[in-house]
Amino acid sequence: MKLCRRPLCATVLFSTLLASSVGHAAGNSANNPTDPALEKKIAARKPEIEKIVAEISASRIEATINKLVSFHTRHTMSDTQSETTGIGAARRWIKGELERCGAGKLDVQFDSHIHPVDRRISQPTEIVNVVATLKGDTAGDRYYVVSGHYDSRVTDIMNATSFAPGANDDASGTAAVMEMACVMARYKFDANIVFMAVAAEEQGLYGSGHFAQQAREKNLNIAGMFTNDIIGSSRSDSGHVDNKQVRLFAEGVPARKEMPDNIRTLIATGGENDSLSRQLARHVKEQGERYVPGFKVSIVNRADRYLRGGDHMPFLEQGYAALRFTEPAEDFNHQHQDVRTENGVKIGDLPEYVDFNYTAQVARVNAAALASLALAPAAPSQVQVRTDKLENDTSLVWAANREPDLAGYRIVWRDTTAAEWQHALYVGNVTEYKMNLSKDNVFFGVQAVDRDGNVSVATYPTPLR
Length: 465
Known about the structure:
Blueprint: H1 7-17, E1 23-25, H2 36-43, H3 47-55, H4 58-69, H5 87-102, E2 106-115, E3 125-134, E4 139-149, H6 167-184, E5 191-198, H7 201-204, H8 206-217, E6 221-228, E7 245-250, H9 261-268, H10 276-291, E8 296-300, H11 313-317, E9 322-326, E10 340-342, E11 345-347, H12 356-375, E12 384-386, E13 394-397, E14 406-415, E15 423-428, E16 432-435, E17 442-450, E18 462-464
Parallel strand pairs: 4-5, 4-6, 6-9, 7-8, 12-18
Antiparallel strand pairs: 1-16, 2-3, 3-5, 7-9, 10-11, 12-13, 13-16, 14-15, 14-17
Helix pairs in contact: 3-12, 4-6, 4-12, 5-6, 6-12, 10-12
């Protein structure tokens, strides 16, 4: 049996082997029905995901970034008629490339709306997202969304004509999403994956905001969303190079005037670190680091950088789990700046300051996480912990998952001071399980597992009174 080397994996496997000491299925005096073959599959790297990660190309990402820069500016209010300059030419090129590489597997569409005049829009302007959907085989109503924004800017946010290369912000994210789309279109998944190049991020998150609002109005089941924004540089403004990690921003408790019941319950049970986005982030970190060895996914427990925002924010506002990928330390000389030279220092968001190999690493983390999510069953629903009597054991219950390749369920837990899951126990195809652990002392989650060993995001239990 090939064991993974990470300490977390070793702990998880050890916990599984000790199944008899931590719990049993409700109504059954027998110990947990272990499945050694399935446990081996859960721990193993999946060949198809390894292939996807290996096919991500830094040279293709470099070519895409250079092409996007060649449009001179991609400002939201720039030229839409030219075939070589402005945001119109850029979006048509993006759509054509996705159609070409998708070879009929990607459904590529423009998603547009007219935005009225506001403080960053001087005239009614058509905001156009490029949306490429890869349809899943079995989970027809479940979607995962990944985006980068293809618009760019200079110092003056209203300047729609000056050279605005936007190589890092955010041709890097757009190129990563396009590369993922082209690679992953050659594979099959259970769930749907949406690859988006969105517009008007710099003017106010208008492209992503429109898509997220439409998704909520249609009651679209978006199980997770990633945005990749400023993922192109491994060098900070101090000159320090860090090409071994990416920041992953994950919201806990949302800052809302009115607190919805689900958030109130989260806080009442001490689950501030168990929001939908934090659960998604744990999954991304585990899968990303599994398939991209030597590269760290550093979860930051904030919705975004301090008092700043990105294209995942509208999805958070609509109640979806959403995360932001960003390089370790930004260089502000090469972001939101007029291209110029001052005191011998070149300023501007130019391709020469992008580390294409680093961008490819971030794309590989995204691809591994997306593939693992889209291959796995949906996260369990209606997960609850029984509270009808005082006891030191913990009884967990959940609704049955109806997906055809479901094998069963897995309970994960961690100390209340731990950031990541520390232990796991496969409990079989049951919908209730009693753990010989106190709900006072640990946080629990329940995951769904399919027959190939693909594991869903964990669901945090609410009280069953």
